[in-house]
Specification:
Elements lengths: L1 H17 L4 E15 L13 E15 L4 E12 L12 E11 L7 E8 L31 E9 L3 E13 L5 E12 L5 E12 L10 E15 L2 E14 L7 E14 L7 E11 L4
Antiparallel strand pairs: 1-2, 2-3, 3-4, 4-5, 5-6, 6-7, 7-8, 8-9, 9-10, 10-11, 11-12, 12-13
Length: 293
Amino acid sequence: MKKLTTLLTALAVISFIGTAFAQLDIGGDIKVLGVWTDNVTDADDDWDDQQAFLRTEMHLWFQADLSENVTTKVSVEADRPWNQDDVEGEQELDVFLEEAWIQMMYLWDSAFSVKLGRQFIEFGDGFIVGDSDPFSEFSLNDKGEWEVDPFDAILAWYDGDDWILNLMGAKVSENRLVNNKDIDVYGAYFSYSGAEEIVFDVYGFMAKIKDNYMDLTSNADVYWVGARIAGTMVEGLSYKLEGTYQFGDINDSAQYDDIKAWAVEAGAKYMIDAEYNPWLGLTYVFLLSLIHI
């Protein structure tokens, strides 16, 4: 009940503030999700990991144009499994801030723009950067679907005629109990679209980890460099191919020293010319870890 009261109070404040804006858009959606899984944990029929459940998910957002090139957005999300109790025996209702950002386009009449705050960021198709916490849901019924978490970040980009350069700085984890026990991510993503039916990307990212992450370490510097190509072969049939190399140092681990890893993603997608735009896709992912012990 406390979460619901907080949500209603926040929406009332947003609505009141929105009356001062010349252009305020309000939207949202409600989804009912049915999920059934089996052999997801270990692909072993002898292990009972089957899940079946229903869940309702709601989004409500407010977007306002503060001026010609300045836009802000606030959105909230509420999730609830059907008739499921939490650990305290109460009906579970997860309500949280999904987005809260301000975007300023074409600063000083240039091709430079910036977006600050809680926002969704996806480069390419999200193979490397697309989810701020990909390990947050250990059980599917925590959310009812494979969720993508937003970033608390500053995103800046320069838009050329047929290319765009993105610069990103994000706070993935903030530990307020211990000084400097944080996880920060910085990076650059360059995309060229000047060739017909082809997009070519190159990128580099750095994660500065000063907190426990995946039970591996509490102090590490990790880097990614990679490239991606995507395009259309024939009408309706598209492809993608991406490769990345990860390296870095673990500074205070008695078990591990250096990080070295490769990852490749390849896929194809066919759009069927029919109502509702159905499509068929196939994706292959190869991962190789070479952590030095």
